[in-house]
Amino acid sequence: MPGTILAVAEVVDGTLTKLSTEVATLARELAEAAGGSALGLVVDAAPDAAAAALSSYLPRVVAVADPSLAGAVSAPAVAAHVGAMLGEGVTHVILSATTDGRDVAGALIGSAGLGMLANADAATWTGDGPVVRSSVLGGKAIVDSALTGASGLVTLRPGAVTAVEATAPGVVERRDPVAPAVAPAAVVDRVEEAGAQVSLEDARVVVVGGRGVNGPDGFGLVDELAGLLGGVTGATRASVDAGWIPYARQIGQTGRIVKPALYLGLGVSGAMQHRVGMQASESIVAVNRDPDAPIAEIADLFVVGDLFEIGPALAAEIRSRRTG
To answer: Helix, strand, coil proportions of the chain in percent (round to 5)?
Structure first.
């Protein structure tokens, strides 16, 4: 029987991330199934707003205000607090499958010797611990995995869990910072990507350009349609590797995981590496000249044709409906 299942939250510009609400929901559900308790952790330079938001999902939240994190990488400090909580009855830790979440997990594996179940698409409590379902081998196989010990880590992929608030808000407990074993690295520069006000993970509409857009100029059409549909531009690995668009836009096994209401792919072949990152979308529409493109297998609507003819026609139709 577990002690406490800890949900580690992430904060961006003072705001709790969407994935953190999913992490919190999973921690609460696992704790309820196991007969244990759930707890949340927010470590940030200004954690109050995020901690208050997290308390809508968990009965208890620990908020740590650490001003030094305003200009530093947070993972060492977060790992230090999680490590302290392991001595207070925490047995399992749920983290986001993000760069920061993996950094924290790596630190805990090294310092506490914990095992990890990575990139969970689903998780249930069975017997003495969580059983995680995840895709492997580029999405070609689905496996169920369990921890061999009585404690461990789970990293959760975006969209794997539907965030649901608790029936009653929890309480927020404030704590002082704990010094990490390793000094945090300083952030010397930040680069904000244009047009990324809404993240790929949070977008309800994602318009994706693949190899078929034929170059960076082709993403002008992708951006146009994303703007008309109130969505966000995404890309395949081939487009990113070609240097047509930044890596931050990449969707797939080595990029972002998205679950929008509408996925519109232009010139996307649908290689397995990409499908892993978008196949959970509610509606999938794809345009490709190749009638045998793999994405046709999962598309709700597959249009065989030239994206440079169909795309502008679609944009014109959207505009006419807005003005009509």
So the answer is: 30, 30, 40
Question: What letter would DSSP give residue 128?
Answer: T
CATH architecture of the region 205-323: 3-Layer(aba) Sandwich (3.40)
For 32-49, write each residue's pLDDT tens digit.
999 999 999 999 999 999
Query: First vs last Cα of the chain: how many Å apart?
Result: 62
Model confidence at 304, pLDDT cuts 50, 70, 90, reads: very high
CB of 57 closer than 8 Å to CB of 20: no
Supply the pTM of this predicted model. 0.77
Q: Is 122 left (phi over 0), alpha (psi -120 to 50) or beta?
A: beta
pLDDT tens, position by position, 134-193: 877 666 678 899 999 889 999 998 888 889 999 999 999 999 988 776 666 766 666 665
Distance CA 231, CA 1 (A): 44
CB 52 within 8 A of CB 172: yes
Planar angle of CA 84, 91, 23, nearest 5 degrees: 95
Q: Which amino acid is at 297?
A: E
**Strand, helix or coil at 231?**
coil
Domain with CATH 3.40.50.620 in the chain: 4-175
**Where in 178-276 does DSSP place strands (E)?**
205-209, 232-235, 262-266
Residues 308, 267: Cα–Cα separation, whole Å: 10
What letters, b where the CB count within 10 A reaches 16 and e where it falls short, cover 205-229? bbbbbbbbbbeeebbebbbbbbebb
Angstrom distance (rounded) from CA 8 to CA 280: 24
H-helix or E-strand spanning residue 95: strand 90-96
Cβ–Cβ under 8 Å, residues 257 and 158: yes
CATH level 3 topology of 4-175:
Rossmann fold (3.40.50)
Residue type, 298: I
Q: Which residues pair with 131 in a beta bridge?
A: 124, 146
Burial grade of 177 (CB within 10 A; 0-12, 13-18, 19 or more)? middle
Cβ atoms 103, 84 nearer than 8 A: no
